[in-house]
Amino acid sequence: MVRLLPGLTVAGAALLSSSPDGGSIRSAHYGLLVPFLIWAAAGAQSRKPRTANQKADIRQGLPLRLRVLASGMLCVAISGFLMLTLVQYEIGSTTEPPRDWMLRSERDKLRDAWLRTVPPEVPVAASLFLTPRLLQRETIFLARFPAFIAVPEGHEERNLAQVQYVVADALFDYRLDQWGFELPLIERLLQNSDFDLIEQRDGLLLFAREALHHRALPQQARMLDRSSEIVQTSFDGQIGLLESSVERIAGRRYRARFVWTALHDQQQKPRLLAVSQLDGVALSRIVHLPTLGLLPTTQWSQGTVVEERFEFEVAAELAPGSYPLVVAWYDSSVVGMALGGTIGRLGEELVVATLAIE
User: Fold this and answer.
1) Which of 163, 192, 238, 353 could form a disulfide with 325 if both were Cys (CB 3.0 to 4.6 A apart)?
2) H or E, element range at 76
3) How many domains does the chain have?
4) Exposure string (b/e) for 48-63, b if CB count within 10 Å is 16 or more?
5) Preceding peptide of 132 cis, ω within 30°
């Protein structure tokens, strides 16, 4: 039993999650447990009737209390290693961004508070990673199933047909493999005439069925037949900005227009996404959904010119003042997009407007 203690620690850590990712330490828990099982089995096998000389030799070895203590110290060391590994590679660093004693970042707190604003009395659908945070609701549907689960054809569509709201995360929190859950869902909702985007908070998206016209945030993208354009700014030599404008519609609602060009063929490269944010204001990121889910960069050949138009709203709690709006492009193949900062960024940010918030 003493020899099984470290193995039980490993098994306990593995049981805390169900990650399908083969590259995750959590997916190797069976292999990690085997050495401890062999060690314990070898110890049990060695417990045979002993001669007087053998018993004397054992008494000269480590006392039982010392062996238990050594096993306990090994458990603590393994637990610490697993905790640091899971924190670092599964939910990000404990210092970037800063987290509280429960390992929650400010974005984690925003996400939980934001989800509570979704009307609880109506059916809602979410991705696999957001559904655990909505379990106190009366009705919840899984909008996107993982690829390793056999789902009857049309089941996801039937789920969406029964809900009033859908929530998604366009910054793909937790892990990069969430693209397999969130991205297809976002693409489907952007192309579904029954749903409209009505809110975006730091990449957190709320879609509503048959939303009132004044609440919908239109998202549009189209290819333009243009060439020989002067590039205002190049983002790491991959994407060029040709034109940009941001105009106030009413209150804290704005309409943005960007015209981009592919400086190199992007069709065989990881998908890129553009993100705007208020400079110096935490949790104010605005994901450019038209060039993420309607005309993604994976459809851009060299020289392709794409115009995107979208509306967004500034958070009601933001203090009045003037705020520069910056934009940048990010590489989707880099883990940790939701952590912010320069992670995955192509080149530098560009100031495209100054918003006067009243």
Assistant:
1) 353
2) helix 64-90
3) 3
4) eeeeeeeeeeeeeeee
5) no
Q: Could you tell me if 203 and 224 lie in one domain?
A: no
pLDDT at 49 over 70: no
- From CA 112, how far away is CA 322, in angstroms rounded? 28
* Token pair for 76: 């603590």
Q: Collect contacts of 146-151 with beta carbons under 8 A, ≥24 apart.
A: 146/20, 146/180, 146/181, 147/180, 148/20
- Structure token digits, residue 303: 């020289």
Distance from the Cα of residue 15 to its chain's centroid: 21
Predicted structure pTM score: 0.76
Residue 97 resides in a domain: no
- Distance of alpha carbon 183 from alpha carbon 83, whole angstroms: 29
Cβ–Cβ < 8 Å for 205, 198 = no
- Residues 34 and 24: their CA atoms lie apart, in Å, by 17
So what's the pLDDT on residue 119? 82
Structural domain that includes position 194: 106-209
| Strand intervals (E) in the chain | 124-126, 140-142, 165-169, 195-201, 204-209, 219-224, 233-235, 239-250, 253-262, 272-278, 286-287, 305-313, 321-331, 345-357
- Report d(CA 38, CA 166) in Å as an integer: 48
Question: 201 and 111 in one domain?
Answer: yes
Q: Does a structural domain hold residue 272?
A: yes
Q: Residue 323 carries which side chain, given as an amino acid letter? A: Y
- Say whether both 143 and 241 belong to one domain: no
Rg (CA), the chain: 26
CA distance 37 to 349: 53
Which residues, including other chains, have CB under 8 Å from residue 197's CB and lie 6 or more apart?
A: 189, 190, 205, 206, 207, 216, 217, 219, 289
3 state SS of 263: coil
Same domain assignment for residues 234 and 271 = yes
